[in-house]
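for the writeup, i need someone to sanity check this before i put it in the appendix. the sequnce is what the collaborator sent (i think, or maybe the updated version? ugh). structure was predicted straight from it, no edits. if anything looks off just tell me and ill rerun, i have time this weekend
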Amino acid sequence: MTKKSKIDHYTDKEALDFHIKGKSGKIEVNSSKPLTTKRDLSLAYSPGVAAPVREIAKNPDHAYDYTSKGNLVAVISNGSAILGLGNLGSLASKPVMEGKAVLFKRFADIDSIDIEVDSTDPEEVINTIKNIAGTFGGINLEDIASPNCFIIEQKLKEILDIPVFHDDQHGTAIITTAALINALDISKKKIMDVKIVVNGAGASAIACANLFKILGVKNENLIMCDTKGVLYKGRDKIDQFKSAHAVKTKLRNLSEAIKNADVFLGLSAKDVVSTDMIKSMAKNPIIFACANPDPEIKPEKIYEVRSDAIVATGRSDYPNQVNNLIGFPYIFRGALDVRAKEINEEMKMAAAKAIALLAREEVPDEVVSAYGGERPKYGKDYIIPSTFDPRLISVIPSAVAKAAIKTGVARKKIANFEDYKEQLSYRLDPSMSIMQGINAYVRKKPKTVVFAEGEDKNMLKAAIEFGKNNLGKPIVVGSEKRVRETLVEIGLDANYNIKIINSTDKEKRERYVKFLYKKLQRTGQLERDVDRLVRNDRVVFGSSMVACKDADAMVTGNIRHYSASIEKLKTVCDPRPGEPIFGMTMIVFKGKTVLVADTNVKDFPTSERLVAVSKSCVRVARLFGFDPKVAFLSHSTFGKPISRNTEHVREAIELLKKEKVDFDFDGEMQPDVALNPVYKEIYPFSKIVGNANILIMPALHSAAISTKLMKSFGDAKLIGPLLIGLDLPIEVAPLRSSTSDILNLASVAAYSSDIIKYKKD
């Protein structure tokens, strides 16, 4: 029997409270341009708005350039088929449509507006949408009853030159087709040979049948049933949409049709399938019981009689959920990015195949978290990717965009699809915009990077990803036996090809001891003490590898406190001449990147240390391509209010003024003054106000608190902390960092090893 997943339960009151809390509803409109000054207003509206108006009048395609059209989708319903609730009217559908708009934004960074059309007349609905369609880059139809949904969609596709997509039909069809591709692969069945029974003949069922046939299912091998039985040639009173799937057969009901069937797809009603029907199916049956909220037959009952079945449902509390969320945001993303005129069958099939292939890959940590700590693996209980798989945003849109270009419905080409995939990733993770450049550099000049705690799951996974992404050669430090066990724990073969090294390597250990004893012999350390240190501490062993040029860089930490890792590193590494050792965190938010220091090392810096930290930050910022603008932060701004806690900050400013440095700086100031351009009018004398990209914190606690708050409560993405000031390219991952965090630090370490001039003894 399959294991049910845990699902949250809630009352109607909790749901109502959720929708009414704060601002009513689930969506709002935000400006994408600054509107803080009179000049901003003049550019945004009158008279500046006249310029784009004239350009669009000359060439309507310029609407994609000067307005939000290219990233705007209308979510439209008339409320005639709301979820499983039926025809409750257009206004009652608004919470659902708002929800759809939220999903577009959350998963694909697409802006959406919900529109509820108060009419069940298909011609009236068509005319309404036709007359407003110019506003949007795409139309998503939702919860419109059959057969009007077919009529409305088909007519709109004929008269509009933007994508029109009825998600209830095509979204379901795409996800189900992806599931079918993988189920057939696992069960070793060929698409041309399988017999399929579809129970239900509504919009989603017909769309699934259409896509199955495009995939390769023979027309005569697909039997469709409605509430009156099998759709067969000659049956009275079936509409044109159903008749397209009527076949010549003597079968008359579901019980007869399902016998010896390879595949059952249910998009109908609960409990219409019995265990006897399941028993009668072919070997290794594929059963998609997708009626919501209750399936045609519960998985528990299926497994009572068929242990060889592959099962999917529409529910989140069972494995293999057929969830449209895996499809529609990303399909529109790809279509919008090439300014497609439509979403054709080739684009739908490209999406289905991309989804299917993604499920076969090793899952990232985000999916593990979503599964309650379990790592799903391609097989009977994992044929569809998780909705929380972060790779969906890069995989599906690129497949859809390629198909659009290939079939000639794209107005815009994509020059480099690898770059496009990375751009898609940082739509949801803005830190990727920084890492894209770093990773591109590292791939051209791959380095050997040590991952010091190789027995730690996240450290080991990061090492594997480092190699898989062609960033360089990973070496993990640890007991080979324990590392191999950890490989199995994370779902890989114990013999996975990765280089493992430790102090049992006598030649390396002796060489590292010799190197380190020479460095430490006048600090009271005996050679046997150094030998014990190299033998027993993986940070020391790994950093010695870098110091002795057996590796280019290292990442450590994750299983011990940051300060403990720093102390161990200091036995092997020295500070860079004239620089302090400190932590610098990169914060990426709404396309702006800010460097913050010191976030991890020194509790209460002196004014001299603040100066040194600022100069080191400037050096690093320039290596990353930034024009440094340094703000020294405090709770006060330019002396108001004066406090003894600001004295060292003010002294740092005076010291820098005397040095005549080659970068702009100012302070002391509050963070909003440093970052918000609105304050330029209040403090016109300062070049830094509103422009800062390096924030020097007055103390460690303020730096740590503020960055952690940004990470926990804001939409900001953090990279780091980066360890600045060592004479070797080594990064320290904070305690319990994620795989992606460690991977980013490994890339930065590799990047640093090439672009920074380290002392070479």
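Confidence is low (pLDDT under 50) at residues 1-9. The chain is about 45% helix and 15% strand.
thx in advance!!
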